[in-house]
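Q: Entry one of two.
A:
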Amino acid sequence: MSYKRKKYLWLPYLNSIDIKPKNVKFIYKGGEVQIDWVDIHSIMIYGDSCDLPADFIDKCAFYKIPIIFHRRNLARASIITPSLTSDSDDLLTKQIKFRENDKKRSYIAKKLILAKFKSMEWLINSAKDQLYKITDIQKMKNIEAWHAKRYWKEYFLSLGLDQKRRENNEIQKTLNAISKFVSSIILRWILYHNLSPYHGFLHNPTDYPSLVYDLIEPYRGYFDKVIFDLYKENQSIKNNNNLLPIAIEKIKELLNKQVYVHSTRQIATFQELLHGIVLSLRMYLNKKTRRFIVPQIDKPRGGRPINSGFKLYGHTAGITDFWTEAKKINLDFVKIQN
C-alpha cells in the first residue's frame, strides 16, 4: 500500500497563522512552514503562542487534526480535538464495556505493561516475571511503579544527574515535551478510528486523554533512549537550552526508521507501530480477534503466523519473505539500542 505521508507539526512559540482554503502558513520561532491541510497529521504548539482564529479551529476539526498545547513548566497539556463521529460498529460503547470488565481491562493493561518493560530493556532488566499469573490490575500497577522507580534512578544516574532534582533539568523538560509530541500522533489515530481518548485501561482518570497515554507505554523506552543518547553524546547541549529542538528532530528520525514487526510479519517504519496499536485495539474491541496484539520490534523468526487481525500501513510496510533483509533491519535497530 502506498500513500503520501502526513506531517507531524511541532510549532515552538507560534507567532502567526495565515489561513487559506487549501493550505495554511505558520510562522514560529526559528522558521516557518506552509502546508496543505490534507497533509497535516497533528499539531503540537509549544510555549506561548498567538491567538488561534475560529476558522483555524474549524479547519482542524474538519480534517480531524488534533492540537496539543504544551508549556515548559506544566505537567499536563491542553488539547483541542474534533468531536467523535458516529460509527456503525459503535466502538465507544464497546470500549467503555471492556473498560468496566475487570478481566478484559486487566488483560489489556498487562499487555501494555509487558510491552513497556520490553522497550526499556536497553537500560534495565524486564520485570515480566513479576507479572506472571497476576490478574489484579492494582498489583500490576504496583509492579510497574517499582520497575519505573528503578528505571528512572538508573537513567539519571547514568547521565550524571541528580534524580531528586530532575524536575528542574533540561532532560526532564525535554522528556515531557517529547511525550506530548508523540501523544499528538497517537491521539490523531484514536480519533480517526472513532475511539474515545478519555477512556483508558491502564490509566484511570477520564479528565485527560488516558487512552493516549496507555498506548504510548509500549514505546516509551525507545523515545527515552533517543534523549539519553543525545544528551550523553552531545556535550555542547549540556549547558544551554537547545536540547528540545534537536530532540524533536531525532524523534522524527526514529519514527522514519525501518523495523521488523513479527506480529504482522512486516517491515515498516517505526511510526506505523503507533497506528498499528490503535488498529489492534479496534480489532480486539470489535471481537475480530481473541487477543490484543501489541505491534512490537522483534527478531525475524519462523513458526506459524500470528492472527493479529490487522496489517500495518505505510509505503514501506508489506508482507515480506525476505528474511535476510528483515534480519539486517533488526540488527541495525539493535545496534542503535545497545
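Q: Entry two of two.
A:
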Amino acid sequence: MIKIRPTYYGELSLEALNQAATLSPSATRDIIGLGWRHGLHATGRFTEWDSLNLRLVDVVRLRALDSRIPMESFSALVERSRADADESPAVAAAATVTLRDPDAMRWITANPDHVAASPKWHQVVVGLGGLTVSTPLAEEALISLMRAKCKLPRELSTFVQLNPWFPRRFAVRFRRRVGGKRIRIRERDATARAWSHARTLLGTRVPYEWSSLHGRGRGRPLDRWSERLLADYADVFVRVYEQTPIAATAASLYAIAAGAINVRGTGDAIAAGWDALPLEVERRGRAMLGLPGATAERDNADALAHASQTIGSDAVAWREIISRAFLDREGLVTATRHLAQ
C-alpha cells in the first residue's frame, strides 16, 4: 500500500502569531489565512490566547494548523470569536481538518450541552459531516448533540446523508431530527467499501487531508460492481448540487469517487467553492476531475516560510518583521527581504 505522507509548502513559526497578537489583530488573521491556504507546517508554540481577536473561521483554521491546542482553549476561542454567516462554508471546510482529531470528537461527545447552547459551535460541527476517518466517533458526537436537542444547520443533514461512512439507519434518523431534503445512496455499505478502495487506488493523488491509512483493495483494480456504485454515487452529487457548486466540506467524497472512475467535471463551476480548502488540496481535488489547477499568489507565503526557517522562534526578530510588515505597511515580502543576506 502507498503511504500518503503530509506534504507541507513550508514552515510557519507560531512565534509570528505570538507577536502579531500583541501588535495587530488583523496581522494575526492574515498569518493564519496564509498558513491555512498555503499548507504551512506550524512549528514552535502559540501562547497569546488572551490577545486574540479573531473571526470564527480564523479560530477553526488555527486549530487545523496546530492540533496541539487543547480543546478547552479552542472552545473558549470559539466563544470569543466573531461569527459571519457568509463564512459558514469556509468554517465547515476547515472543521473537517480541525475535528479529524479523535480527541476533538470525544470532547464534543463529552460536552454536548455546551456545544448545543452555542450557535458558533453549530457552524463548527457541520464539519463532522465531511469526515471519512474515525466516523464512528463522529456519529457518536452527533448522537450526543441530538440528545441535547441541539438545533443544527440543515446542511449538516445533507453531508451526513451524502457521506456513505455514516450507517443508513443513522443517516435516516439524523435527517428526520434535523430536517432537510431526503437523499438516497444505493447500497450504502457497499458504496462506502468501493469509495475506500478508490481512495487506496488513487494513492498519492489523494491529499493527506483526505487520506486514511488502511489496506483495503491493495493491489486490485475496481471491479465492475464497485465502478457502477461509484458512478451512481457521483450522479447523486450532481443531482444534489445541480444548481450550486459542490460544497468544499464534501469535496473529498465527490472527487475521490469520480476521480477513481475517470468521471470528468461538468465544468469548472462544480469546484467553485473549493478555494476554502488549502491550495494543494484544491489542486489535487480538481486534478482528479480533470479540471484546471487552482492558482494563488505565493509571495507572502514564501516570505513567511523563509522567515520561519531563518529566524525560528526569535521573538525580537519576529516583532520587527510584524511591525514593519503590518504596522508600517511594508508587506511581508519587503519586511523579510533583509533575511536573504
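A: Comment on entry two: The beta strands are 10-13, 40-43. The CA atoms of residues 82 and 307 lie 30 Å apart.
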